[in-house]
Amino acid sequence: MRILVTTTGLVAAALAQAGQHASQPPRPLGNLSNATDKCYAMHSRGGVVTGEVEVTIVVDAQGRVAGASSPAGTEDHLAAAAQCVAVTMRYEPATLDGEPVAGKVTIDIGFPNPPSLREPARKAIEYCQPAIDPLATLNHAYEGELDLLVRVGKDGRVVETVLPDGLLPWMDEAARCVAGRLAFFPARLHLVAVESWATVPVDFNLTRNPHERVRLDAPTVRSSDEQIIDAYRKCYPPGRDDEQVISYRITVTNGGRVRKAEVVRSSGDEALDQAGHCILRNLAFAPARRNGKNIEATLTWPVLVRPPI
User: Fold this and answer.
1) Secondary structure element (H or E) that encloses residue 40, with its range
2) pLDDT tens string 148-177
3) Would you call 11 helix, strand, or coil by DSSP?
4) β-sheet bridge partners, residue 157
5) pTM score
């Protein structure tokens, strides 16, 4: 942190007339880093805030901030965030012969570089978009775009997501899925990882024609009743008689097999959770279809895990 101090014109004139008089400039109190972190977290939600800027703060005789300014031409987001830091700090007023007077102090305030994606968002979009609850939009999903606002932790993981208003149900779920699969190089200030907000443009237009209406048909179970019962007999833990509904996020291949299953809402019982995994692996599905063509799809699938009939 670099701090430059000056006095107001009145104080300077007084000093010119009485050079022997002792004076002290305004002095920042508290922790500059804490104020910087607070203002950065607030202002980075509205756009990229990065770089360094000098802010000149006018402090009155009571130690209150009477004004703050940054050099002409400073980018708006950076200037606003830096001035936020300036007015968040507390100050001890300047003194002349031991008496408090108005003065100025200039603080050099630095903000980190923004976080950056470890790999393109496209991979997460392709995982999350296909056939997510298409029935919620009457079997006709319109592909679209949105700006996903995420708070990135010091470890590069998304710790908070802000979605725009007015999303279709399928897009809301897909956007949250995307946020959960993004990984970042975190923002850094003086080589130290810090928490930061970032905006990620998410484009669900996976077709060449951005105005094309897309029909997404969800996967359905193709196994017969006998095959389903057989899956329960193979998978339900012996000696148990309880039942639970467990939600999974499953990936069904374009050939109709469950390639991956992740617990979304657990039963709290690992044996029953594993039984649900086993049941899903033993079922055959009619794959999802996109405009009549088989596709791999990821969606939420509840399973009632109970004793076989």
Assistant:
1) helix 32-43
2) 888 898 999 999 888 776 655 566 777 888
3) helix
4) 183
5) 0.45
